[in-house]
Each structure stands twice: as C-alpha cells, then as structure tokens.
Design the sequence.
C-alpha cells in the first residue's frame, strides 16, 4: 500500500490542458531558437501533445491559439485530435501581434480598431462552435507606457463595452475567461493588471464570464493562493495558466521557481473542490520558453502539478481545522509541512503502473525514439513559433 492509495479517487480527477504553442519554437523578446523536430502544422502540435497524454494520462485536451492554429476545417482538426486520444480545449484569442493594436485592441480609442478586435473574438467563438470548445480566453497586451499617454478611465469603459459585445455572442454552454497580467508589454499601466480588475469586468458581464489566473502574472510577494481561495469562494475562478518565473518574465516550467507555492495553490484548489469536474475550473499550462526540449518540458510540468496535487490531497484536513480553531499556530503549520515534505513520487509511479502507464514518463519518452523520429520526419516547411 502506498500513500497514494487513500487519495487515488480524487487524484484520478486531475486533468491538465496543454497549450499547442508550447510545442513550437518560442523564447524571449530577444531571440527565438529553432529546434529539431519542431511541429510545422497544428496537427503535428496535437500529435506531440497526444504523446504527453499517452505517457502521463494527465493531459487529455489541447488548447488552440488563433490565428497561430488557424485551419480551413476545424471539424477535421477535432476529428484528428480524437484519433490521437485527445480533444480540443480552450480557444485563445490574439490581439497583440497586429500593427493596428499598437495602442490597444479592445481598449483602443479608435472604435474601428476595437471593432476589429471584437470581430476576431467572434471568429474565435465560431471556432468554438465547431470544435465544441467551452472557453474563449482573452489576454490583452493593452496599456500605456507613460503618464498622460492614455485616458485610463475611458479605456475601462471601452473594455467593458467590447467585452459585452463578445459576451453576448457566446453560446449557452460557452464561457469567457479574462486573464490579467501585472505588466508587460505595457510598463506604466495595464488595462487588466490584476484579479480585481478582471473580476470587476466579469461580474458586470454575467455568470458566463470568469477570471483566468496565470500563476506567473503577479507582483513579487503576492499571495497567489489567497487569490485562488477568494475567486473559488466567489464562484469566479474559471481557469489557471500554470507556469513559473524567477524575476519578471514567466512561462517557465510550473513549480520550477517555487514548488512550495504550487503546493499552496493546489491546497486551495483542493479545499475549494476545484478538482471536481463540476467546479468548472480548468487547469491549463501556459509554458513555452526557449531552452528546454518541448515535449519533455510539458511532461515535467504536468508531473509537477500532479505531484503537488497529491501532496495537497494528503493534508489532514480534520487535524488542520482542529489546530486552526484551537489557535495552535505551530501545529497547524506542521500539518501543512508534513504533507508538503511527503515523498509521493514512488506512490505516483505505482499509480501510473496500475493504469498501464510508464512508471517514469520522462525515461519512457527518452527510450521511445519519438524525438528521433520527428527530428527525421519533420524536414522542410516552416517551423511553428510565436514569431518574435
């Protein structure tokens, strides 16, 4: 018997969506490095994502990014994904790589530019209608660099008006998830800089609008797990973008910078019932950097989330509540730390084997020959990347 046995049923509910763009060439604003075997088409991205799911059993869906993943027939693309054992998930919009959006998209002072951005969101909803995707995710690079450059209040009004038009186009079972980011690329003010701004807009829109929390998009020292607890409490946490950062830029492997923070976040997800599919909380990676191998990087990330979820599930909630209510400060903290320091890796290896999965997905990938095969097969054509 392993420490995982008692939590296996809850652990079985864990599903982590992987992003299509994580398999393409990516990097910082300074350089994007090409790598052998990089997908040239969205189908090849999906095939790589399917390999991650095959080895881990944790990644049953793939998020798309429009127009990076634009195709002529999304029905065929959904069928292709199904044939590879995965499904298409969140549709991510893109209003940050067009010259017209230099001074904003949904918040631009020019109504023509705002309408162009709104039309793009409508296009994404049409993709969702075909793929069966539930969520439209919106992240805006909109903001300003200098005091006086823009009217911040007017931009909030324009943003709400733009989002309302998009929201009203959603189908009955579709949702809008609004992401936020502390800064970058705007350095003076960002139009959606924090969870409160995202929450305020979502609250005004209605029940189908929710907040997307990117774990790398906060000021240093921010208590992210408090935000998680609050949004779950308010019924407004729609999704995660899991990644990590050390300084300012993000999109590193989740848990790389602060595994304890990831544990604390997952403790609040578990506490709030977020693993239950009925919660509606989507757990997704948003990870794409320029040094690590893409497929092993995604494998490592989903395993990190699983490991910290397992540790969070091991928290003795009854004992913790008793310690909290009795004012036992050190005892309560010790219960948390005991769970965090529990080595769940052997138990998770047994859990995988019980499901016909490799005990060590990273080693299995190395031995599979998949990377050598795609390095050989994917010759010619244009490698996928985010275009920096």
Sequence:
């Amino acid at each position: 018997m392993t420490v995982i046995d008692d939590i296996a049923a809850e652990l079985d509910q864990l599903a982590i969506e992987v992003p299509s763009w994580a398999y393409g060439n990516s990097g910082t604003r300074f350089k994007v490095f090409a790598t052998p075997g990089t997908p040239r088409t969205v189908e090849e991205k999906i095939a790589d994502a399917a390999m991650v799911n095959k080895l881990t059993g944790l990644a049953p869906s793939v998020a798309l990014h429009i127009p990076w993943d634009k195709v002529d027939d999304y029905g065929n693309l959904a069928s292709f994904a199904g044939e590879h054992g995965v499904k298409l998930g969140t549709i991510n919009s893109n209003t940050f790589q067009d010259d017209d959006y230099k001074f904003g998209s949904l918040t631009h002072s020019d109504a023509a530019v705002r309408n162009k951005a709104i039309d793009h969101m409508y296009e994404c909803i049409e993709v969702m209608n075909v793929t069966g995707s539930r969520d439209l995710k919106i992240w805006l690079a909109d903001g300003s660099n200098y005091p006086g450059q823009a009217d911040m209040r007017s931009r909030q009004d324009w943003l709400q008006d733009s989002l309302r038009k998009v929201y009203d186009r959603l189908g009955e079972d579709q949702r809008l998830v609004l992401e936020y980011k502390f800064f970058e690329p705007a350095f003076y003010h960002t139009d959606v800089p924090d969870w409160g701004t995202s929450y305020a807009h979502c609250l005004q829109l209605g029940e189908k609008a929710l907040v997307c929390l990117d774990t790398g998009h906060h000021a240093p020292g921010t208590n992210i797990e408090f935000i998680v607890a609050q949004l779950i409490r308010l019924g407004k946490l729609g999704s995660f973008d899991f990644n990590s950062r050390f300084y300012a830029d993000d999109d590193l492997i989740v848990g790389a910078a602060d595994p304890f923070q990831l544990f604390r976040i997952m403790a609040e997800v578990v506490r709030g019932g977020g693993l239950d599919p009925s919660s509606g909380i989507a757990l997704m990676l948003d990870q794409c950097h320029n040094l690590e191998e893409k497929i092993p990087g995604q494998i490592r990330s989903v395993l990190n989330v699983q490991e910290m979820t397992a540790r969070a599930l091991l928290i003795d909630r009854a004992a913790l509540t008793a310690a909290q209510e009795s004012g036992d400060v050190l005892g309560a903290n010790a219960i948390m730390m005991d769970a965090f320091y529990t080595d769940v890796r052997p138990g998770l290896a047994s859990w995988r084997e019980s499901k016909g999965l490799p005990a060590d997905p990273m080693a299995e990938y190395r031995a599979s020959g998949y990377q050598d095969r795609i390095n050989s097969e994917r010759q010619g054509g244009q490698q996928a990347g985010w275009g920096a």
